[in-house]
Amino acid sequence: xxxxxxxxxxxxxxxxxxxxxxxxxxxxxxxxxxxxxxxxxxxxxxxxxxxxxxxxxxxxxxxxxxxxxxxxxxxxxxxxxxxxxxxxxxxxxxxxxxxxxxxxxxxxxxxxxxxxxxxxxxxxxxxxxxxxxxxxxxxxxxxxxxxxxxxxxxxxxxxxxxxxxxxxxxxxxxxxxxxxxxxxxxxxxxxxxxxxxxxxxxxxxxxxxxxxxxxxxxxxxxxxxxxxxxxxxxxxxxxxxxxxxxxxxxxxxxxxxxxxxxxxxxxxxxxxxxxxxxxxxxxxxxxxxxxxxxxxxxxxxxxxxxxxxxxxxxxxxxx
Length: 319
Fold this sequence. Notes:
By secondary structure, this protein is an alpha/beta fold. It has eleven helices and ten strands. It folds into two domains: 29-121 and 246-314, Bordetella uptake gene, domain 1 (D-Maltodextrin-Binding Protein, domain 2); 122-219, Periplasmic binding protein-like II (D-Maltodextrin-Binding Protein, domain 2, 3-Layer(aba) Sandwich), CATH 3.40.190.
């Protein structure tokens, strides 16, 4: 059947509601999927940001926890959701490291598009409070003696695993990786002296440091943590390659209209600047970030290029 002017008009008419919806967005509740269980750093940040962003948009944002496969399960749900501006993803670094580690992914690499880098809970390298190691140099030096030291992680490809491998590759540290099911379990192992050290998000370690159960040796971000200004960064102590954090970003399914992505980006940025949200996050060791969609895309590209050689050197493979 030949394509007529009538067909063109019908197609244009069908498209008009989508255009109108994009302009009016949002008109109903938004779903934000967190690909981890409740209670962790990523979940905490996502809930706080969602609540503040909902006030900016005038519509509720509900959090759905869909954990599994190192954040792949929840990411897959969003990747295959309708690109209508009512489903978003709030993942962490696994969204770029999983494809480097896993043999197969259930969705294509471009199925999720970046919206904004919301916040980071920098890693803190910690030992037991009565450990003989007072700084990162002492820990690394001790690891080179005898059989080395035990370092707990939250499994292959977790942020603590990357910290350990950065120390091994960049500083020649001799660390035996001891994987646990979660970062919190890895921290408990340090407190109980089943292992010598670990690295975990500031939001998890800060209460234990303040409670006198852990000693902080270094943070792993590119600046000191506002809630722990006396803790130097690894870079300040001469370990320039040790740079990683438990960041939380927001993504949308590919095909979500650009004007919706821009509006969501603007709403989250406004939320991150609000005194209420900053007062909620910063005392917990979480730094609000923000920025443009292009800023986030650049960050992701640089992270992937920086972490890929570590994955290769450590021969990281899915458990």
